[in-house]
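hey can u check if this looks right to u? its 669 residues, i copy pasted from the old doc so theres a chance i mangled smth
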Amino acid sequence: MCGIAGILEPAGATPPTEHAMRQMLALIRHRGPDQFGIYVGGRVALGSARLSIVDLSTGQQPIANEDGSLWIVFNGEVFNHVELRPELEAHGHRFSTHSDTEVVLHLFEEYGPACLERLNGQFAIAIWDAREETLLLARDRLGVRPIFYTQAAGALLFGSEIKVLLADDRVRAKIDPSSLDQVFTFWSTLSPRTIFNGIFELPPGHYLLARPEGLTVRNYWEIDFRDSGEAPPRDSGTNDLERYVETFRDLLVDATRIRLRADVPVGAYLSGGLDSSTIASIVRNCTTNRLDTFSIAFDDSAFDESRFQQQMARHLGTEHQVVHATHADIGRMFPDVVWHTEVPIMRTSPVPMFMLSGLVRDHGYKVVLTGEGADEFLGGYDIFKEAQVRRFWARDPDSTWRPLLFRRLYPDIPGMANGSSAFLAAFFKDRFTDVDSPWYSHFIRWRNNRRTRRFFSADVTQQASNGSRDVLEQVGIPAKFSRWGSLERAQYLEISIFLSQYLLSSQGDRVAMAHSVEGRYPFLDCRVVEFCNRLPANLKLRGLNEKYLLKKVAKRWLPEAIWQRPKRPYRAPIYRSFFNKTTPDFVRELLSPAALKESGLFNPTAVGQLVQKIDGGLPLGETDDMALAGILSSQLVYQQFVKDFRMPPPLGERDDVKVCSQAAATNGR
């Protein structure tokens, strides 16, 4: 696991320098504090900040092929590198390390960009072809690892985080109102946009080729599901269901096993829910690896699941470590988290995850397994059930009892669990008969989120609307979308937006790597993903019983109280984290009329009324709670990246820096 960065200058321009790379890498020191590497050759400079996990002794980057014509810097892990290496050796490739990075390089040498289809892992890659003067940037299928880029004065600059691009004087951060509109609707920008004008992320499952004649971006993988017209197999207690259970169990065990490949210890997160408990149980029951587990406990009982975490840890017999998150902790650490997310966030949930990765690092771990992905690919979220209930209700629009089914979905949201039929109907009825809409499953969520836009300034509202489609129409819908069933359509929206753009980013990579911790996700193994996407819908969501197949698989390893418990979403307190007995100074400063006018993002009067509501002791509803997090984080993004971007000193003599050049590679490897 590493952070990467680079510059490709146009022909005839001043070549990039080692000093420029030292400055860029200093900004992502947290991603890879163990070693640093720089390659400078002609038009290109590449940099790596390495977190040593595989091949500790010889895996330092950048790495070249035999004749020095190809150079790679690599962020991530390729879990099937052990299986790929013998094939490459049989084709005559010679290796000087035992790293997965060098396997990727030789695989590219053999197959070109098509090599990406053979990688089972999580990665962001940069490969420079000195002969062809071509730079490849590539990202894993689901976007576990990030890579950003921009063009300035003809140069292409890229890096694992946006802040490395800002190290170059030619790049300035400016918040894009349309991107802000997306964040306040979807909880994230829509790839390839970022919150900043002219700075882009390479979308998941894509690669970029920078040739002398220009840039091209292409996809090598895309999400796909079984067509709704395919006949479902028999599974009513017959051998068909048993076959699915056995196949899925074998896949998940192997996906977990290969993610234990590391030359350092591997721990596991334990939330107390089905997903992480299953992964931890596989490690305990199907491997000989030592297992330490790590959890978050909240002082606020409305968010705490520590009782289930402790029960599961006792069942597994693990050394279990817990970080306790208070309201004051979340408020105090919020600015640090926004520095790492580099985008406004509509939740405080990334903050306890930031604290958790700090706990992991404090106990000497660099790698953890987690349960992300099960909800998305196996139908675990309440939003999938919500869409099913709305469709059921739409078949009898005048029914007074069908809306009462919504009571079962959101017991954690005030007013929902005991809402009357009239209240629930009023809340969920909007466009509920428009069942052919591509965003039918997510319309209620996005409609509610969009209420937060009332806090925008007049300028932001106008600029976000000028010359653009309605924000919902900005969601890209693939050509195959209409062939999928209703659950699969909902899954696509959840995977392509919430999972890739928010969960694996702001709540995943960014807060884990802030403490130099790599998360690994067995449920996101490409074989597991493809298997789940071919499943009949009723093996994922059966009525209102979520993750049906996973429960069948996991029940052999888990206590009944764990695998039978209802799904509870991971959440963290918002307004009480910012307004309490120890309210941080930055909160009122950034919400002041002067600060709001300076950024120009929000209406000071509307924000002032929100603050008055909190000061008056009135509780905030779900939408206003999210708005507060979004406003504060947007103000922090403006302050940290636009108004007052601070550059650390470049890497110095005390840092372990490997510097390479084309000439050095040619003279011997």
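The chain has 26 helices and 18 strands.
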